[in-house]
């Protein structure tokens, strides 16, 4: 290979990234058979983790994590779910596996939890309002039981510096044809950096990926909360902005002010004035991250362009969005 060829070859994915676990992997298949003990089972999805419903009595969920997840992180989240079980927020109860909390399989950590029978709330305006009411309740519960906190998860866009690294990696992975969308990423990142220096944002325990796909409606009408894999302490507006983006994608987006009001009705604290100022930046940051990590997650230029269009659309509304201020907003 010549020097020119080497310089134009896309960089390999990081060794730690690793694919989602597969039930076809002999080690994983053996673990499923060991846990199921002849009962039926089904892969019930999950973008990052393999989640297998075991049709035992009572039914269970076997979760096999991605390679990057550390033992301390998984164990810490199990203890967090146990504490959340004493609050109004319904989460899956951890169950021991082979006499312990966790099991090592195929260079990954595996765990068991109860299966909560539920239906996913349908996309729509009513579900969107309920989602933000529940998000406020989740934040209230997390605040009450967070300590001791679990170890931090892998977070590749906690800082704008990390985001810039992801943009560069995607540029190298997708090649010269990605340069136009990469320029858009870098321009927006610079504009967000300027605004970010002007605001002070409260950091609290957050869910990290709260959306209809991670909620379930129970027979009594209450909701359960799933997938705490990205729970950590960071700007709470990150959680709100993530939920708003998912609602927009599902077609259930109402006037954002109505959703923020629903959140503030159940949240521990109202949004601050700086949070209202940062709202358009927080909303743009979510799809900007999707665009920046396109080369890491296997998306192409088209997906990166689509994400950037969404990011720029939020940012273009900054005059409108940053002016939102409900009656409960603090003045400090």
From TrEMBL:
Signal peptide span: none
Residue ranges of every copy of the Aminoglycoside phosphotransferase domain listed in the record: 49-266
Matching InterPro entries: Aminoglycoside_PTrfase (IPR002575), Kinase-like_dom_sf (IPR011009)
Renumbered residue ranges of the record's region Disordered: 1-20
Name this protein carries in UniProt: Aminoglycoside phosphotransferase domain-containing protein
Protein source organism: Trebonia kvetii
Source species taxonomy: Bacteria, Bacillati, Actinomycetota, Actinomycetes, Streptosporangiales
């Amino acid at each position: 290979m010549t020097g020119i060829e080497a310089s134009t070859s896309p960089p390999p994915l990081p060794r730690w990234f690793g694919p989602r676990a597969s039930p076809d992997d002999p080690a994983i298949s053996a673990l499923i058979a060991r846990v199921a003990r002849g009962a039926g089972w089904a892969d019930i999805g999950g973008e990052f983790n393999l989640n297998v419903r075991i049709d035992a009595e009572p039914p269970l969920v076997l979760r096999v994590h991605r390679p990057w997840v550390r033992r301390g992180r998984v164990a810490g989240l199990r203890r967090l779910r146990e504490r959340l079980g004493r609050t109004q927020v319904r989460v899956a109860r951890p169950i021991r596996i082979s006499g312990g909390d966790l099991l090592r399989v195929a260079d990954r950590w595996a765990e068991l939890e109860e299966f909560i029978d539920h239906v996913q709330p349908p996309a729509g305006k009513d579900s969107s309002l309920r989602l933000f009411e529940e998000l406020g309740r989740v934040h209230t519960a997390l605040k009450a039981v967070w300590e001791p906190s679990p170890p931090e998860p892998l977070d590749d866009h906690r800082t704008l510096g990390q985001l810039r690294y992801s943009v560069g990696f995607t540029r190298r992975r997708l090649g010269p044809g990605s340069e136009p969308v990469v320029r858009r990423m870098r321009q927006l990142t610079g504009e967000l950096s300027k605004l970010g220096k002007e605001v002070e944002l409260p950091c609290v325990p957050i869910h990290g990926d709260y959306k209809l796909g991670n909620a379930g409606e129970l027979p009594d009408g209450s909701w359960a909360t799933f997938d705490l894999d990205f729970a950590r302490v960071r700007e709470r507006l990150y959680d709100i902005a993530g939920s708003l983006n998912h609602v927009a994608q599902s077609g259930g987006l109402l006037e954002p002010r109505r959703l923020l009001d629903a959140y503030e009705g159940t949240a521990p604290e109202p949004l601050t004035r700086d949070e209202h100022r940062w709202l358009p930046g927080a909303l743009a940051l979510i799809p900007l991250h999707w665009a920046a990590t396109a080369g890491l997650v296997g998306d192409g230029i088209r997906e990166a362009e689509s994400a950037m269009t969404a990011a720029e659309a939020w940012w273009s509304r900054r005059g409108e969005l940053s002016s939102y201020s409900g009656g409960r907003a603090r003045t400090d």
